[in-house]
Amino acid sequence: MNLSLPTAKGSRCLRSSSEPFRPRGRQFGSCQWAPKLISSNKKLSLTSLQNNLKVLSCHKQHVPVLEARSIEEIYDALAERLVPAAEKANDLNSKYIVGLAGPPGAGKTTVASEVVHRLNTFLSQKTFTQLDEVATVLPMDGFHLYRSQLDAMENPKEAHARRGAPWTFNPDLLLKCLHAVRSQGTVRAPSFDHGVGDPVEDDVLISIQHRVVIVEGNYLFLEEGAWKEVCEVFDEKWFIDIDINTAMQRVLKRHIATGKEPDVAKWRIEYNDRPNAELIMESKKHADLLIRSVDF
């Protein structure tokens, strides 16, 4: 991966409490109501909104909380939120970069892909043209350390057992990639092959027409080392707020579905996944928007 670092710095990681984010929509007391504008199942419309309202309830320290009756409504509200950013990016080299974090089992990958799909579909229908995609997803998974790098650590057995912990990723490479996305317009980034268990170089294309990039991953808002610099790159930070027990039940099903014995899957959750999730939940204080999880 041949990525160069730009000189420009990203936005601040923490939003000042004196300058709260104010989502679009009708005010109700000190809270906000945002309308549902986008549907994935029929032609998209900016009309007939009265019966399709989202609740954006107020969270302490002025961080809005997005709540909805269904996951489909959450997808729609998030896509609508990004329409202005996608439309105002006149410079093809400019990028609006959104960080989407949350613990394992929160549904980050699904949320990111659904929001991108709705945003691309809506803008294409709005202009009555077959536009190139204006939004895309960059997963953090591609920045895992290679198995060979884990083998070279002081305790390889522990390193493999804890794979998925922050120190089993390469945040410096992720930071370099994000700076390149910001400064170069077109970048190739790694993906992750779960069958092989290693990254795949240059497998994700961020191209010049992509004005909105959603980066999804566990540790995007951590405060330690290079992770803090990663957090500072994002124009906007979303966090999926989910009960840890619910998230771990989803992860357990995922482990079993991939062939792990139930006892092994439960051990991995208690030894690795749950401690990681607890650490990740602490980082939600850096979010600009909390997304209240609902069942898929």
UniProtKB/TrEMBL annotation:
<dbReference type="InterPro" id="IPR006083">
    <property type="entry name" value="PRK/URK"/>
</dbReference>
<dbReference type="Pfam" id="PF00485">
    <property type="entry name" value="PRK"/>
</dbReference>
<dbReference type="InterPro" id="IPR027417">
    <property type="entry name" value="P-loop_NTPase"/>
</dbReference>
<dbReference type="GO" id="GO:0016301">
    <property type="term" value="F:kinase activity"/>
</dbReference>
<feature type="domain" description="Phosphoribulokinase/uridine kinase">
    <location>
        <begin position="97"/>
        <end position="294"/>
    </location>
</feature>
<feature type="region of interest" description="Disordered">
    <location>
        <begin position="1"/>
        <end position="21"/>
    </location>
</feature>
<keyword id="KW-0808">Transferase</keyword>
<protein>
    <submittedName>
        <fullName>Uridine kinase isoform X1</fullName>
    </submittedName>
</protein>
<keyword id="KW-0418">Kinase</keyword>
<dbReference type="GO" id="GO:0005524">
    <property type="term" value="F:ATP binding"/>
</dbReference>
